[in-house]
Amino acid sequence: xxxxxxxxxxxxxxxxxxxYNEICLAIEHKAIKSAAILSGSIIESLLxxxxxxxxxxxxxxxxxxxxxxxxxxxNEYDYINVKVAGLNNLINFAYNNKYIxxxxxxxxxxxxxxxxYIHPDKEIRSNSNIKVENIxxxxxxxxxxxxxxxxxxxxxFGFNSLRLLDYILRNDxxxxxxxxxxxxxxxxxDKIELFNRLIPKKIxxxxxxxxxxxxxxxxxxxxxxxxxxxxxxxxxxxxxxHRITYQQINNEGKKEFCHLLMKVITxxxxxxxxxxxxxxxxxxxxxxxxxxxLLVIDFYLSYLYKIKVKSLFYNLPKLISIxxxxxxxxxxxxxxxxxxxxxxxxxxxTVYTLDSIKQAHSDKYDILIKVLKDIITNDTGTxxxxxxxxxxxxxxxxxxxxxxxxxx
Length: 408
Hints:
18 helices
């Protein structure tokens, strides 16, 4: 089915989706008149929604030859409410005001002519023979016009929340250019809707799908493996885009996220909690009450090993700055865990994290540096391990003294 997410009015959207599905059935069963009538209905709904969004409530009446009609006994042009204007007036007005192309103008009128053959007398008078072979053209014309109207809608009004999500899901490069797309959101509410509901919901759906597929991973073929990898990549991309969106929404949107977060912490299942732990930007601590802040910190610490690497190290400087010093060992444990796992991406992130807290939180910095140095001194192998070499390099970057090793 084609994508009608760019339609803002839910009533028009429901009508369009219903009619498009019925067109597909009509084409399948070679029901020519049904397909023609429904095609005209779709065009009418698309144009009406577009013009209403441009705050156009009345348009000029026009003849079949696209001549503007004047009021009776007057030089003034006659106008009609856009919602009851009829397909001919809508097409002509959209073309005259350059909202549709020359090609779409004629394609729409072609569909309108077909639709008018619902009247037997007109079909007889026109001496036209509607061939069954032409029925497939209706869907092709609709798709062409749909693409143009959706582009016009986004150029004129920007992306609504559903189209923003659709862009993330359909484009491999979306995380890189996402900020540019996000800045073209129709309204602030579209950003908030995307941030607080659509992205979390889609991550939840994909996580469930991924978990179901990975249960049988011991007996998985290459196709299933690639499918799981693809799902995983999309989930990572959604997390990235959610993090970018946090920086762009207003405080009301962030407060709404905090409200959802508190409900998740106290009421939701473990999968949802894990998702929100990964979605969480710890800067929200600044707008929470003291009691809620403590609850969120404890929640985050309890999910440290479930948080994806990129999200974790993004939040680590903030986490270190707000966590009690008696809980700093939990952070040293997670850093050590990733160093031992040969996760090379974390080396630079660890250096950045430690460097960012060096001045403001020197007591916590010293504890974490000592943990790293102890790893070196406790490496008693004949040759330093790969992890020891990596930590030595990190200490050099941080201008820290490298301790002596005493190998057996």
